[in-house]
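User: Just a sanity check before I run the rest of the batch. Below are the structure tokens for the first item. I only need the designed sequence back.
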């Protein structure tokens, strides 16, 4: 037993890790033990296996020398390379990302075999559905983790997230930790980047969920069909085993296409439309809750949800579909909604005793912003106003789309900074101005805090101010600099100052 533990601590032999991984040894006769898997040369420590991944902005092959100097004992690359006098081992792979996924799963001893994985994909709603699913999947006492945009909840501890879907080796490490913590299930967001870059390749999912597809990430995917093709790869199992069961939103046209392509016996469809197997009827929306009747297999259940808006009814249906696919008691799941406290930065109400509503939401696409504004418009007796921005170095086409949505649905809009990154804010504003609808009332304010201040000061009793785009994020990105900025915290500070009548 002691020898087994010692070997695990020392790592695993390179030859065993590379077996059937798509990588072939090209140089080096030694068979070293691998202590860790690394894709960032700056994080290499002695004993590391370095993967030189082709990148969107940078190519990992440019950092092989640095990795070797830091102590990497082996390199996996798609480019033939001479390592000179180095004792390091070189392995060549036509697809280093796929090799990484296979090696990572083996290195962490296939954690997905011991966990029931639920993968949730779609443009909007992944985070809310993942958190709802975690709530429902815990009703039978099972320990359920949650991985996604807001954070990595490993049950025994919560880590800040650095991307929606972690890189393959990071993901397998997180799953391994959850297994060690006695976790039974995991609800995780599966992003299009995570699918395309094979971060979830090779993993066995108990269930897969498709929510919707609207314009986003076209700077990366190019067009909507290419974007859809990537999502399809996860649902149909083109990057590994397909999920055993599927929940698909048939209110969405892309969801209907996927449902038509999939074997009927493994698909549970959901939505508000008549063709859905699991559907919501008799919908009633209120400022602080939603009421609807759930219909499934001839039975009807009255549901009161703390989440507001039609799209959150769809999100609730998605999560309930997951519970059904995993054979959980639907009535217990519905009852657990009473304890659900929502998701940080997702239609989060900011209340400081003011006579108007303030809501912070992550809506950063045209469709998400439209959903949020239409829903708030239905429950706002006064004027509806919005503060929003568009990120830099991303799909420029959606900027005018978001402005068109804001200026057509809100009574007044303030366009401001989101995450400009390396792009000049005035360029972003110029793109946004192209979407102004005739007669749309909008101001462009460079400073986000100032835009929020002006919006909040303009509010009258009964109004609603939506602060959109960043949600839970506690920062803004300017060039290579990240500065603290949390919409929720700033809104509370401004409301307190306004209430006290102080100058801001």
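Assistant: Here's the designed sequence for the first item:
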């Amino acid at each position: 037993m002691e020898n087994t533990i010692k070997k695990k601590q020392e790592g695993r032999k390179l030859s065993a890790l590379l077996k059937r991984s798509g990588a072939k040894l090209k140089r080096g006769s030694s068979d070293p033990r691998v202590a860790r898997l690394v894709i960032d040369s700056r994080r290499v420590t002695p004993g590391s296996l370095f993967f030189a991944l082709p990148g969107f902005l940078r190519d990992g092959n440019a950092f092989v020398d640095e990795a070797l100097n830091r102590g990497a004992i082996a390199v996996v690359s798609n480019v033939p390379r001479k390592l000179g006098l180095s004792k390091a081992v070189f392995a060549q792979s036509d697809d280093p990302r796929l090799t990484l996924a296979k090696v990572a799963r083996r290195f962490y001893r296939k954690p997905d075999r011991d966990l029931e994985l639920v993968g949730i994909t779609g443009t909007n709603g992944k985070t809310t559905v993942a958190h709802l699913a975690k709530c429902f999947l815990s009703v039978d006492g099972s320990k359920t983790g949650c991985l996604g945009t807001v954070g990595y909840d490993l049950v025994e501890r919560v880590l800040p997230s650095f991307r929606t879907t972690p890189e393959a080796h990071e993901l397998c490490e997180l799953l391994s930790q959850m297994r060690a913590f006695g976790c039974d299930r995991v609800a995780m967001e599966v992003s299009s980047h995570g699918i395309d870059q094979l971060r979830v390749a090779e993993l066995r999912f108990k269930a897969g969920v498709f929510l919707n597809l609207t314009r986003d990430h076209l700077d990366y995917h190019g067009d909507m069909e290419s974007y859809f093709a990537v999502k399809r790869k996860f649902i149909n199992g083109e990057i590994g085993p397909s999920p055993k069961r599927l929940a698909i939103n048939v209110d969405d046209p892309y969801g209907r296409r996927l449902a038509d392509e999939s074997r009927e016996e493994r698909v549970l469809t959901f939505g508000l439309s008549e063709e859905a197997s699991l559907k919501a009827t008799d919908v009633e929306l209120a400022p602080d809750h939603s009421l609807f009747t759930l219909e499934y297999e001839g039975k009807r259940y009255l549901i009161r949800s703390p989440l507001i808006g039609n799209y959150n009814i769809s999100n609730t249906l998605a999560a309930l579909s997951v519970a059904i696919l995993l054979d959980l008691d639907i009535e217990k799941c519905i009852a657990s909604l009473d304890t659900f406290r929502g998701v940080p930065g997702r239609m989060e109400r900011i209340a400081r005793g003011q006579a108007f509503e303030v809501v912070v939401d992550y809506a950063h696409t045209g469709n998400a912003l439209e959903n949020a504004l239409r829903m708030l418009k239905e429950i706002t007796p006064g004027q509806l106003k919005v503060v929003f921005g568009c990120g830099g170095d991303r799909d420029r086409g959606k900027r005018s789309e978001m402005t068109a949505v804001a200026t057509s649905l809100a009574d007044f809009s303030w366009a401001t900074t989101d995450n400009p990154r390396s792009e000049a804010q005035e360029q972003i504003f110029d793109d946004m101005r192209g979407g102004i609808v005739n007669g749309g009332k909008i101001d462009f304010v460079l400073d986000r805090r100032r835009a929020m201040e002006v919006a909040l000061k303009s509010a009258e009793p009964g109004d609603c101010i939506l602060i959109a785009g960043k949600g839970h994020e506690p920062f803004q990105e300017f060039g290579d600099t990240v500065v603290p900025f949390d919409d929720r915290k700033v809104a509370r500070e401004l409301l307190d100052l306004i209430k006290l009548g102080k100058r801001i």
